[in-house]
Write the structure tokens for this entry.
Amino acid sequence: MELNMFQEHARLFKALSHPTRLHLIGLIRDRNPCVKVLEEELGVAQPNISQHLSILRNLGIVEAKREGNQVCYRIKNPLVLKLLDAIS
Amino acid sequence: MELNMFQEHARLFKALSHPTRLHLIGLIRDRNPCVKVLEEELGVAQPNISQHLSILRNLGIVEAKREGNQVCYRIKNPLVLKLLDAIS
DNA sequence: TTAGTATATTCAAACATTCGAATATATTAA
DNA sequence: TTAATATATTCGAATGTTTGAATATACTAA
């Protein structure tokens, strides 16, 4: 197993190592929601949600699509779903 | 999905979010090695290895068994193996 | 007992993450 | 245009993680 593999996997696990991000991923998986919906569901301040979404975007875990006034999110890397299914 | 579930899963993912710990888990899975062997394989200082093993022990991911002079490690929570298989 | 080997713990400095506050940007409606 | 709504970014303080250095503990051999 390559050393860089460990780094890459560690980065992915780190992205999943915060409860808010796991909650976000769960909602995004189910409904491809826009940020407003995520904000209401989580009861977390909007800038904080955007910060967490930014982390997930930068790792290629989710992707954003603007739809008029709002931005909707969906899962980009299905590997993440495999991991979530494996853990629950 | 309960809020505490996200916390619990996040804790597990955090334990897996460091390359050294992933390397350790891989070796432990294959050979149930003692710390000396882990030290040689990883080329990382012994106290640092013990620190990472302590994190994995505290989360119930691995367990230690003293064998005379040395301490051997093995996987305790097989869920971790499911995760590692899912990611690779 | 003492010396040697194997492992664990403690501490502090360096570094990274998290979050609220403030602000910026994008789009729509008036 | 201006105002309103939705989302993103920046910054800094608080907090958490990582690591090397020093030290402690456990066992074995002499």
Chain B touches chain A through 27 residues (CB under 8 Å). The mean pLDDT of chain B is 97. Helices of chain B lie at 3-15, 19-31, 35-42, 46-58, 79-87.
